[in-house]
Structure formats: structure tokens, C-alpha cells
UniProtKB/TrEMBL annotation, chains A, B:
Keywords: 4Fe-4S, Iron, Iron-sulfur, Lyase, Metal-binding, S-adenosyl-L-methionine, Thiamine biosynthesis, Zinc
Record function comment: Catalyzes the synthesis of the hydroxymethylpyrimidine phosphate (HMP-P) moiety of thiamine from aminoimidazole ribotide (AIR) in a radical S-adenosyl-L-methionine (SAM)-dependent reaction.
Catalytic activity: 5-amino-1-(5-phospho-beta-D-ribosyl)imidazole + S-adenosyl-L-methionine = 4-amino-2-methyl-5-(phosphooxymethyl)pyrimidine + CO + 5'-deoxyadenosine + formate + L-methionine + 3 H(+)
Region span, Disordered: 1-24
Organism: Yinghuangia aomiensis
InterPro entries found in the cross-reference section: ThiC, ThiC-associated_dom, ThiC/Bza_core_dom, ThiC/BzaA/B
Note on how the cofactor is bound: Binds 1 [4Fe-4S] cluster per subunit. The cluster is coordinated with 3 cysteines and an exchangeable S-adenosyl-L-methionine.
Cofactor needs: [4Fe-4S] cluster
Protein name as it appears in the record: Phosphomethylpyrimidine synthase
Binding site for [4Fe-4S] cluster: 532, 535, 540
Domain ThiC-associated: 32-96
Pathway the protein contributes to: Cofactor biosynthesis; thiamine diphosphate biosynthesis
Amino acid sequence: MSTPSNASTPARNSAPAGAGTGITTGAISAAHHKQYLTGSRDDLRVPVRTVHLTDDSTVRLYDTSGPYTDPAYEVDVRRGLPPIRDPWIDERGDTERYDGRIAALGVLPGAPVVRPRRATGGTAATQLAYARRGVVTPEMEFAAIREGLSPETVREALAAGRAVLPANINHPEIEPMLIGKDFLVKVNANIGNSAVTSSIEEETDKLVWAIRWGADTVMDLSTGDDIHTTREWIVRNSPVPIGTVPLYQALEKVNGKPEALTWELYRDTVVEQAEQGVDYMTVHAGVLLRYVPLTARRKTGIVSRGGSIMAAWCLAHHEENFLYANFRELTEILRAYDITYSLGDGLRPGSTHDANDEAQFAELTTLGELGRIAREMDVQVMIEGPGHVPMHKIKENVDLQQEICDEAPFYTLGPLTTDIAPGYDHITSAIGAAMIGMWGTAMLCYVTPKEHLGLPDRDDVKAGVIAYKIAAHAADLAKGHPTAHEWDDALSDARFEFRWQDQFDLALDPDTARAFHDETLPAAPAKTAHFCSMCGPKFCSMRISSDIRAYAAARGVDEESARTDGMREKSAEFAAQGGRVYLPLAD
Amino acid sequence: MSTPSNASTPARNSAPAGAGTGITTGAISAAHHKQYLTGSRDDLRVPVRTVHLTDDSTVRLYDTSGPYTDPAYEVDVRRGLPPIRDPWIDERGDTERYDGRIAALGVLPGAPVVRPRRATGGTAATQLAYARRGVVTPEMEFAAIREGLSPETVREALAAGRAVLPANINHPEIEPMLIGKDFLVKVNANIGNSAVTSSIEEETDKLVWAIRWGADTVMDLSTGDDIHTTREWIVRNSPVPIGTVPLYQALEKVNGKPEALTWELYRDTVVEQAEQGVDYMTVHAGVLLRYVPLTARRKTGIVSRGGSIMAAWCLAHHEENFLYANFRELTEILRAYDITYSLGDGLRPGSTHDANDEAQFAELTTLGELGRIAREMDVQVMIEGPGHVPMHKIKENVDLQQEICDEAPFYTLGPLTTDIAPGYDHITSAIGAAMIGMWGTAMLCYVTPKEHLGLPDRDDVKAGVIAYKIAAHAADLAKGHPTAHEWDDALSDARFEFRWQDQFDLALDPDTARAFHDETLPAAPAKTAHFCSMCGPKFCSMRISSDIRAYAAARGVDEESARTDGMREKSAEFAAQGGRVYLPLAD
């Protein structure tokens, strides 16, 4: 079987003609085939990654990578992705197009101007509203097929508020997905240029790169210049839901002075982003004035940017947080576009020392209250969580959040389980992420090796996503997800049977697995050798074990006969044949 | 403050004249100072790493790196480390020197021939025997000072078999340390050449490299040529306990044919290694003939090398495992040298599918039985554990092991929590390692990124050790170790106060933390800037939070006054001063 380059960084611009600014395209491994499962209608095509193994079996994996890994798709980042949801939204007939505030700003150079949609006359054009009315939307069916579940299961979870399906009606390009503890644990990757470094093209490439390795959603945390244009590129080219923190852009508009923020300015920013198609928004409405002093005796104060901005505003004005004070009006806006709330934990701990303190849990109580208001108004809600939490305090976070917030999906950053390893916080936090995922967190916000130190580059984005896919999958296994183990089992079978190509193709990162193997045993025959590079041919336990199994199977040795000592004669047979447990090398 | 090179690979041969074959020496960071705490006698000098911070405070860290990081020590790998324990062993007067089997083989080129010791006339020259007799040995006192505990606490834990202090009387070079759930969680690194690749010099360097980053013990798993000489280099240059699997060398002696192994040949090998100074030995005495067929229906059979060798032997001869059959005689040998048993889990699962099955737990029961025999004979015992275990099955492993094996220290490989990420198994397993450590595992055997794929090089050894130090420390925090949090708190304080140099110096890996920061903000002033490279100067939440705290402290705002709304006037004050939450950049 021919294999692609095993370089750890695939060639860019490997896409067909028409590819734009250095986007990575094509299958990760030659044995990976993009396929689409169809639903109840022809325009409902759910992507899956089918891995073809050398024993002629196949393994089907959940696929977040969008059309970029489909060789039949011609990438053009200036045109954006096809608006696959448009017919579905049109058919529902409860939205209208209008002249957006800054429509002219909101298009890519050369792309047609598209007027934004909003719900007609204050109706709730949300997936939550449909679910409650008993309607299974195409989005729900799409997501259900992805999860391997019935559409009705999905509808019920959404109706109960136990899950969300983030899908702004102005982001018709997305492939719908679910966030909820009943489903596969999801991973979010943060990207975003900052005042200090990075460019629009780089951020668009980071989006495609992040979903290539498995990010289920992406947050655009840009804070620098061209924030609107950067976001436009990202949204138009994203098959996954995009999240933002509108407060960051609002703060840019007042030159970085929190006390100059106003509700009106913030509201305008939310509408601007709503029209672009942002699918979920982090809103720090739980940072109440009276909670701010609770952080004064902390070791690391307030480490959430949004939280610190709102705290500074509250202190400067000595007024209640304007996001809290205007929460119903804000909710009406989100409802008109079906934007999902991600209620931010502005007072999350920034050190293991500060974990699970009064400030953190006080805010959580307010987030629970706000979540109930949002759901009453048919707006989807998830709740953000910490942060830095030592392992013995992790479960309390999920349990309290689930109780206080009526089982709304929990969306946590890590948590980091120790503070001593800057440079390795993808690992300190993958430990916490796996555990909190096992106990019920629905989506894990990744942390890269650069956390606390600098801005992630492409390699850091990949390292963060991979660490978090590991955490999420380990959590799926531990939660007893009915199909999660199939991937592990397929890889374990390939390992035991020395099918090296299949091990690489089934690896979360085939490039790295292949490259590491080649470092020690670069020769092609090593890929079919019945041993691995660690122990060499004479010492391979897998090989001895395989021989034991073959011996036992061929001679009818089973557990019972072994127990009743029926193996003595068989042992003589084995010895008579030379007691060979090693076979000549296949080459 | 001057800082050393921030290259990720420090210069080799940076040691004083006399340094040998490319060993990495010198402090990891210029702010790290090697110090020695003294005990009740002058020759009891316990190493610690004191980190000098820019605010004139210091943090004292546990130090495994040996004399190699002491600038006052002149390294000579051909001479080996000073035999600091010799006077202690001499004083006890219960050992004798004799002509070892292959003494001439067992010395480094140019080094003086040292005759090995053994206990006189069948006495138990073990730390366990002394602990039971109420004697606090210098080794116990040394280890107690390292842990910050009283010698009596240590003696009690050893006497009860809840902890071990691996210290072969022929390895006088070690700095004694403890393995037990009452103490800091320890990390083992495996090194060892194989038939396929690597050299003696490389393995010696890997030892020094592994302990530099925090390995508490090192296992030499060499299987290739020159196995005896490689081990001699490693033992003579190791300040940490060295473990081996004697079965590997025994198998070399019969050209890799398990069925040709005999008890006599194995026993000779153990004595040979005992004379060299191996501190603990993995012995797969629990792989009983009747357990082998229990693995036939597994997905990945037997993945322990030792386990598969013994299984093949049992099947070939249809006799009981000769290690089990001769266990008391073997124990007498280990007792004569104070070698600690590491009872191997030859039937550990090699895939998440096979975790916690009948074969695994059947063997565990036998290990419990053997542990009781060993302790009755005054020989120290730890028990090895899995392997590959999904998260929800991890706790059962510790609980059962502690119950069945009378709280003997548990020593686990990982466990890996999923099988899908070859190339990243340091992460899949650090998750499991942290959890199993929290629940009571005493020592974690590291896994490198090359696991399942190839042999670890220097970078892999470091990556594996760092991932496992994270897991071990996270476990110490979660166990509520009384001093573990001091390290995190010091780093969190430095982070909140923008003391960048201190953050680097306190990092588990200062080189990487510094290099990552410099990638984004290379200018020297950035190291004193009151913001970090992620958000830039305008957006720094830590900075806003710091301003909030300063504001609150200066004006007497506290939690109570905030609750009673006493902040209204203070808010006016804040606004009157311009509401400044950002200060001009310090440069």
C-alpha cells in the first residue's frame, strides 16, 4: 500500500487548483477515505472518515475536518464553504433577510454580499424551540447520524436543555454537532490574533489545522486590529461552530478602557457578530459587583480576561454588571439568531490554590439562575468551568455545576491539575480534562503548550488538539459510550497482529506514529516485521504471546483443560516440534 | 540576573575537567543551587535544590539529580560516584566481602576492583529487618530528611511493609529514597540498549539525563550485547536505585530460547546482578501455568516481556513457573544483598479491552501470597501494576492491590487510558498515572512518546520524565501531601506578580518555559513586563486583577464592606483618579 509523506508537517497548498492562502488539505493518511452518510433527505450528507485496513476491514471515525479533507472539494477560502443549511433554514420560514449593520464589512474580498438573517418578528428560531415543539430539524438529524443515535434521542436532550446544538442561522456552512453529556465529549480549540503577533491568513489556516486534528468547535479570540475581517474569514471557512467573547471586541472599541464600556456599545457588538454568524458567545454575566471582593484574598485574583474586564467596570461604576442587568434583552438578541450562550466563569481559579473557593461557586449560582432565564426564552445554554483545579477537587465542580445549572452542558478549560509545569500545560490540563470529561463535562476547551507563556503556533495548536482528543476519547471510554471502544479495539488488534500500516492509519496522528517508528527502523520490511523496534526480533512479547495463542488454538487448549492439567501431553507435543516460539522473520 | 543558555538541549561536557563521555552536568537554571541538609552525622548529607527568587525568597525542591548538578563535584564516569553508604554498611557489621563470580568483569576500565559484599552467614542485612528491630539506619534518616518527615515515621512504614527503601549493599553510591503511599509519589524511567540500537555511553548519558529531570529510580532493561558492562556503568554512576529484570539477561544466555531457561541459570544471573549492586528486581513469579490459558481469549494476549517468556517456558515444560517453585531460595539471595522485590505483573493487560480481567487479577492474588513470604523472610517488596486501563477501571486496581497485597507499595506502568494515540502515550498514560497516584500508587513507571513504536532517545526520555513528574506531583497535591502545594503556590505568586524569571526558574523544565516565552516576546524587557505575550499589554487579566487588588487593599475594601454596599464612595474615588487600571509599561 502506498502511503503519504510521513513528514510531521504535511505540505501546504496540496489542494486542487483554486486553493487560497496556504490551507492544509487532503487526507491525513492515504487509507483515510471521506464518506458521507445520507439522512432522510438528499441534502443531508453527514461526513465520516473511513479507515481502510489491510485485512480488508474498515473502521468508521467521527470526522470534524470539513470539506478540506475531501479530495473532491475545491477549496477557495475567499469564497468560503457552501451554505449547506440554507435550504433547511429557508424551509422553516421563520426568518427574514435584512440589511445588516455593517454588511459591506462582513464579506470576503470578491465574495457576493449576503444579507444577514434574523427571526421574523421576535419568534424563537432556535433549535431549542423546535425541540420543545417536538420538531426534529435537519440539523438534529445530521447531528444524530454523526453520533450514531436516533434523532428523537437528540431532540429530547436538546428540549431538556441537557445538550446544545450551536448553529447561528447566519452560519449556514456548519456541519451540525452536539454538545452534551449524553454524547461524545467534544473539544474546542482557541485561535485568534492578538495585539502582539499573528495575521488573518495564519488564523484561517489555524482553524483548518485545528479541525483537521479533531477540534469540534473553534473560538476566535482575536483582540487585535482587523478583528471583524479576521472573524469573517474564519466563519465563512468554518464547518464547525465558532465561538467568540464579544466583550473583547467591545473593549477594542473603547481603546481598552473597561470603565468606558456601555451596554449599548456591547449590544451593538453582539448584533454585529450575530450577523456574521457566530454560533456561541461567552458572556461574563455572572461576575456580580458583590462577588469581586471575594477574589481579593486569592493567590491569583481574576484570571479570566472577560471576568477581569467586567470586575474593573463594576468597581469603576459601582454598578451591577451590565450584562447581568440587561440579560433578558441580550437573550432576545441571541434568540433572534439562534446563538448559544456560553455563560462564562469570569471568576474561575487561576491557580490550584484558588480552586473551588467562594468566589467561584458564588458565580456558578448566578450562572444557574441566568441559564434558567435563557432557556425559558428558548435560548440554548452551556456553562463554562475552570481553570486550575487539583484532582481531588475536580468532581465537585461537575457535580455542583450539574445540580445548580439543571444539567446544562458543562464546558471546561482543562482544568490544569498543577501549576508547576509551564511549557507542558497541555499535559497538566489533559489530566484534568479527561477526569472532568469522565464525570460529565460535555466539551473541553484545549490548552496548548504555550499557555501562560506565549501565543500558540501551528505546532502548538496541533499538540493542544491531540492532547485534548486523547482526554475526550479516554472520557468516552470511561463513560461507557457504546461505540467508543471500537477504535481502541481495532488499533489493539492491529498491534497484536503486527499490522504496522494499520496501527499508523488508526492512530490519532498517523504522521507522528509513522515518523517515530521510522526513526528506529526505517527500512520498509520493518513495517511487516513480526516484532517492534523496542525489543527486537528475539524478545517480542507480542510475538511470543501470539505464538502461545496459536499453539493453544491449534491444539484445543482452553481454560478448562489447563485447569484440569490436561496440557501435559500437549506440552510434549510442543517440545517435540522444537518448542519453537519464534518464527523466521517475514520479509 | 544572568541566566544560562535557554537552548532546549544544554551543552554536554560542560562539567569541570575530568568529565567523561558526554554527560550533561551543571545546574538546570542559574537560580538553582545545590545544597545539602545534614542529619545526625556529618557524612549524612541530603541533597536539595534551592531556587533563589528575585524577591529574595527561596523555594526548596526535592532533588534526584545527584552530584551531576553540583558544580563542586568533578564528574568521572570511569571512576563512578563516591560510595557514600560504605561507612554506614561497614558500621552495621553484618556483611562480608568475598570474591564475586565475575568480579573482574564487573568494574569499569581503569577503576579499582571492588569485591562485593553479602550478608554474613544468612543474616538479613535488609532495611526491613532493621526497621522491624526498631533501628533507624542512616539510610532511613537520609530518606526521612528528603521527605521532610521524622525518621521514626519512615521506620514504621518500612517495618509495616507499606514502604520500601531499595538499597543493595553493593550500591553504596545511592542517595537513599522511599517508595510508599505515605510519601511523595515517585517516578521510574526505563533505559537500556536493545538488540537493535544504542550504545553503552548513550545509556549512561540517558541515566544522568533522566535523573536530571526528576527520575527517582531507573530501570536498566538492556537486552543486547555487553549487558553486564552496560549495567556496570549505569550502577556505578547512579545516585538513584537501579532496577532490572534478570530474566532478560538470563534469556540472552540461552540465545533467546525461553524453553532452555533453567532455575540454576536464572539464579546465577541474579547473583551476578546482586554483586553489581542492582537495588530492585522485577520477578515474574506470579505467571502460573494455570493462568496462561486465561489469556487466550484476550485481544492482546501477554504483553509483558517477562510474562510472555515465563508463559512460554511453562507451556513448553508443562511445569510450574520456576520462579514460583523456587521463590524461597530466590528470596534468600535477595535478602543477602538487600535487594527489593518488584513482583512483576506478567499478565498485565496490553489494551484497554483486556483490563481488569481474570488473568490479571488471578496473578495479583499470587503476587499477594509471594509478598507475604518475602516479608516474612525480611525482604522488601513492591508490586507491579498495569498497563492499559480505561479510567473507570483504574481505582479498582489500586484498591484490590492494596487489599490483596497488604498495602505493599504499588508500582504501575501508566496506565494508558486509551489505545488510539501511538506517538503520544506519555500523555495517554500520564492521565492514568496521575489518577492511580492519587488513589495510592507509590511509584509510576514512565512511558515515553516512543512507546509501541521505537526506542526512546534523549528527547523522549525527557518528555517521558516530565510528563510523569507532572502526574506524580498532581497526585501529591490531590493526596494532600503537606508540602506539595508550596511549589505550585510559589509559581502562582510569581505568575500573578509578573516575575517572569521566577516563573522560569520554578518551572519543572525552565529551559522550555523560557524558550517558549522568548519565541513570542524575545526582547529582554519583556521579562519584566507587566503582561504576558498572550494578550498583550492592554488585555492582561492578571494585570487588571492585580490593579483591583491594589485598589481594594489601599482603600480598605474587603468582602464585608462590599457586601454591605460600602463601596459606592470608594468607586467615586477610583473614578476621580482617572479609573486607571493600566499602568505605564515598566521597562
